Amino acid sequence: MTQDQKTIYGIIGNPLKHSLSPAMHNAAFAELDVPAEYKLFPLEENELDQFFTDLRKENSPIFGLNVTVPYKEKVLSYIDSLNPLAERIGAVNTIVINQKRKLLGYNTDAPGFMAHMAELEMNMRGKRVAILGAGGSARAIIGTLCMIPDRPESIKIYNRTTSRLETLLEDIGQRINIDIVEPVNSIDDLNMELADVLINTTSLGLKKDDPLLLEDELFHPHMFVYDLIYNPPETKLLAQARKKGAKTANGLGMLFYQGVLALQHWANTQLDDKVKIVMRKALYERTGC
Fold it and tell me: pTM, whole model, 2 decimals?
């Protein structure tokens, strides 16, 4: 890396066109007046090996990465050292590359999710939770909900690929007490009429023509529906839930909080409130929220 070369940060995943992380982080770099840039790195799975090989080279300008769908679990094999939380959850969404080109893995999804829940004044104690999906984000949410003192009463989780869900629970259950978690084989088995909280961790909703997993009549006014998707700001899932009188929220707040934590890991320092405000404003401007 040459002296006049910008330090690069970015996100790997597929797809990435919807990502608002560049807007948030580049706004922070501008506010901090640091010569850095945040980029998108859309990768196919067969490109991961070469990408991480190049990442370890001394002349690489990349010193930090976020990881999104579908690689939060796949990147574990490339990491040199895992933060204890990331190790327990079994998924990484933030990578620090130090001066020796060693890769340090963190999970900022879990604390980012909980920070947004606190902002929304959503206490999970005693709640009956239904979760859609079994990827890296689901791991983080299940893990943190099972570890917090104010645990839900129950968590039911559905994934279209049953084997993937079974693998997730078998793995995470080795390190976290998941006795409140029950995998189900169909949407009907989620018992949505009794659910207090519904969390969508799947990518269904990113595209306009994506199907709605739940029938309209399953939503009710006493539930809280949370969709990790933030672009578009209101997915079909959230729109249908809102029409039925349910409280709704998208994942923009979670994106913000995990992004702040990621940047703090990269910079190895705490961000002041002014920078955080700039980051959140950049997200609001891009989404119109």
Answer: 0.96
